[in-house]
Design goal:
Blueprint: H1 2-14, E1 16-22, E2 28-34, H2 39-50, E3 58-63, E4 69-71, H3 78-81, E5 88-94, H4 107-123, H5 130-145, H6 169-181, H7 188-200, E6 210-213, E7 219-225, E8 228-233, E9 236-242, E10 246-252, E11 255-262, E12 266-273, H8 277-295, E13 305-306, E14 316-317, H9 324-332, E15 367-374, E16 410-416, H10 446-449, H11 468-482, H12 486-527, H13 533-539, H14 542-572
Parallel strand pairs: 1-5
Antiparallel strand pairs: 1-2, 3-4, 3-5, 6-7, 7-8, 8-9, 10-11, 11-12, 13-14, 15-16
Length: 573
């Protein structure tokens, strides 16, 4: 029996697991790992496959069976982190956006960051003015198809590519005009470098939004950037806090706390509510890692962070990588022949249709188009298309954080709006990229407020536009989902009251427990015959003798008298 158990255990330890990692160009890397293989081993395999040395900016993302996204921890076993059944599916993504992407040492690193930011642009995470959007799209065209050639690029050729969640004919003409007249002669590497320089100047560069709610129940997005902590709400940036002003981050259940110390010793605490405790913990861990990476001078300064307090056990977490300054210093020492880069070119892409010859989105304002679906199937297949760190949820206008459905597939209807020289209205579109020319305010993605979709795929244009009245009603539903109003406010207040009551009950429980322990110790000291050195020393103190004879003995006689009176009363009756 023992030998059979030992042989079975050895087979489990030697078992190999298949892993598929989806790369930034939508190609896949497949490998096998042992049961005890750490995350660092898998990451090193990927970086060797990509010939990547400046690897500290990147990470591996996966989603668990509860549809919650995670970053793979390199110090822990891959198999133990993956709660899903093998084979495992993951994604290779940018985890820490470079503060200055143009300053990266190697072209291969800049190319991978370029692919990530291009995805951000398409999925609506990188928001910009129409003029900036046209320039960024023209850089992508130049990098992927080269110089304009009238023989190869007929009129309207830019409409064959999709760079943003929505297009307009005016924007397409502007993209083609810039590509024809301003970018001729630029190599792919030069176009990608110029793209990075422009993207870096945008306010939402490096933003990976986490949907939350504030204390009033209003939808908000929290994000960590190379420069600090950002809160996006409504159609503007509500808070921007530099990393050196953030003193502490912690979470309790679904509640996330950010402690800020600003000038003149002004201290504030920002409180937000995540959709689930798992999402809140992921938000907290992302904040700890980003602050350590961008703020600290050396990795030796990294400390283990705990979210616990007097009444909550909490979690402990420690960032295990190098910090940004160390990465830059290490990159400066790289001396090798530049590795060959195999650019994707015009290979069809499943998640970033900017390099596909797919149909252009309709430019008719306020029409419905089924262009996005949310996959809620088991497994990790849908992760390939988005770098969001939010939990994957089924969309519901009634509850922004409804539990995931168990159906095979759910679809979300999204509208397409014209890019015009007028202020952007959140009712016109749920994918606000780019915004109007003179509108500098940030626009948020309502699809993330309802749980970011994990799969965005092109579908055939099977539906025509619907009446404007239906669109207005649907727009109103989206706005109500984003701004719950009094109902959300009441729910938030009720949650605050419940947490306060629970804290008071915990305090009372701890107090009663301490008093009970002290009572037991007092009884042992006064009534027992234990003659240990510890008890003997306490009994011989003047304070204890005074307490014993002046307070305890009279109290004992009074209590005994009352007990006898009650017993006599019972006997008499």
């Amino acid at each position: 029996m023992l030998s059979r158990w030992m042989s079975g255990s050895s087979r489990n330890l030697d078992r190999e697991y298949n892993c598929t990692v989806r790369l930034l160009d939508d190609s896949e890397y497949t490998c096998t790992i042992q049961r005890d293989a750490k995350g660092q081993y898998l990451f090193d395999l990927l970086c060797h496959h990509l010939n990547l040395l400046e690897k500290d900016y990147f990470g591996i993302r996966f989603v668990d069976p509860d549809k919650q996204r995670h970053w793979l921890e390199f110090t822990k076993s891959v198999v133990k982190q993956m709660r899903a059944q093998p084979p495992f599916t993951m994604c290779f993504r940018v985890k820490f956006y470079p503060t200055d992407p143009a300053a990266l040492k190697e072209e291969i690193t800049r190319y991978l960051v370029f692919l990530q930011i291009k995805r951000d642009l398409y999925h609506g995470r990188l928001l910009c003015k129409t003029s900036d959007a046209a320039l960024l799209a023209a850089y992508i065209l130049q990098a992927e198809i080269g110089d304009y050639d009238p023989g190869k690029h007929p009129e309207g050729y830019s409409s064959k590519f999709q760079f943003f969640p929505k297009h307009s004919e005016k924007l397409e003409r502007k993209i083609a005009e810039i590509h024809k007249s301003e970018l001729s002669g630029q190599t792919p590497a030069t176009s990608e470098l110029n793209f990075l320089r422009k993207a870096q100047t945008l306010e939402t560069y490096g933003v990976d939004p986490h949907p939350c709610k504030d204390v009033s129940g209003n939808a908000a997005f929290l994000a960590f950037t190379p420069f600090g902590f950002v809160v996006l709400q409504g159609n503007k940036r509500v808070h921007f806090i530099k990393w050196n002003e953030v003193t502490k981050m912690k979470f309790e259940g679904k509640t996330f706390y950010l402690y800020v110390s600003q000038k003149e010793e002004k201290k504030i605490v920002l409180t937000y509510f995540a959709p689930t405790p798992e999402a809140c913990k992921h938000l907290w861990k992302c904040g700890i890692e980003n602050q350590a990476f961008y703020k600290l001078e050396k990795s030796s300064q990294v400390r283990t962070v705990s979210s616990s307090n007097l009444f909550f056990k909490g979690s402990r977490f420690r960032y295990s990588g190098r910090v940004a300054k160390e990465v830059m210093e290490s990159s400066a020492k790289i001396k090798r022949e530049p590795p060959e880069i195999h650019r994707a070119g015009l290979v069809p892409s499943r998640s970033c249709p900017s390099i596909t010859h797919g149909p252009r989105l309709s430019s008719v304002p306020r029409t419905r188009r089924r262009a996005v679906h949310i996959s809620i199937m088991e497994g990790l297949e849908s992760l390939r298309d988005s770098a969001h760190s939010t939990p994957v949820r089924s969309t519901s206008h009634g509850d922004a954080f409804a539990p995931p459905g168990r159906g095979g597939r759910a679809e979300s209807s999204e509208r397409v709006a014209v890019i015009a020289d007028e202020n952007y209205s959140p009712a016109d579109s749920v994918l606000p990229t780019p915004v109007a020319e003179h509108s500098l305010e940030l626009m948020l993605l309502s699809r993330q407020a309802n749980g970011a979709p994990c799969s965005i795929e092109e579908e055939k244009e099977s539906e025509a536009g619907t009446p404007a009245a239906g669109d207005a009603e649907e727009a109103g539903g989206e706005l109500r989902a984003l701004c719950p109003g009094a109902g959300g406010l009441g729910a938030a207040q009720a949650e605050q009251v419940n947490k306060f009551v629970l804290s008071v009950l915990r305090l009372l429980l701890v107090t009663v427990g301490l008093l009970f322990v002290l009572l037991l110790l007092l009884i042992v000291l006064t009534e027992s015959d234990l003659d240990t050195a510890f008890f003997r020393d306490i009994r011989q103190t003047p304070e204890f003798e005074q307490f014993h004879y002046q307070y305890f003995c009279p109290l004992r006689r009074w209590f005994a008298c009352k007990v006898r009176a009650v017993v006599n009363l019972l006997i008499d009756t």
